[in-house]
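Researcher: Here's a chain I'd like modeled. Treat it as a single chain, no partners, no ligands.
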Amino acid sequence: MAHSSTMGMPVTPTAALVFAEGLGFFGSVAVQLTSDDWGRPSACEGWTVRDVVGHLSTSVEMGISVLRGEQPVWHAVSRPADHVVGDPVAHWQALESRARTALEGADLDLEMDTPMGRLSVSDRLAFPAIDLYVHAWDVGAPCGVQVDIPTHVIDFSHAVLDPISVTMSRGAGGAFGPEVPTPPGATPTEAFLAWTGRQPR
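Model: Modeled as a single isolated chain. Structure tokens:
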């Protein structure tokens, strides 16, 4: 398997591994939430915890399409929560199962045309992979669930995002908001969250 890197993104196996681990990582947080938690405000301004699950569902659906060698299709809804069908945990577990099936035998080196140019499946999988960990904190932290993002995922995220211009990665249309100051004595997770534009405390 070729270990190509497009736009400074990591080698092919790493993106798939981080994505696969991230599916379980988010799921391990979701199962700790109660029925009352889904309507709570999340760490994403204006979104409930259920909204974040809905938003993340579209990101994983994109990953599934890409793993199948297909271009993603976006379905407009009034709120991200509308993407969640029934019980959020059951919804997530079904989605996770589909994503793992798509990973099996996927051609990670297949190149596809995108708005950012021609990218491999692995390159395109990097953003959904990072989303799984960041949004796990977005839903867990407001509900009292301790979420520590693994160091290798933080390193992976920097390797993917550092080479991308600030205008593309932050602000309107970007993945994150402006970086905020790192709190004193920050853990690696807190420093990373501040880098993504979140208030870690």
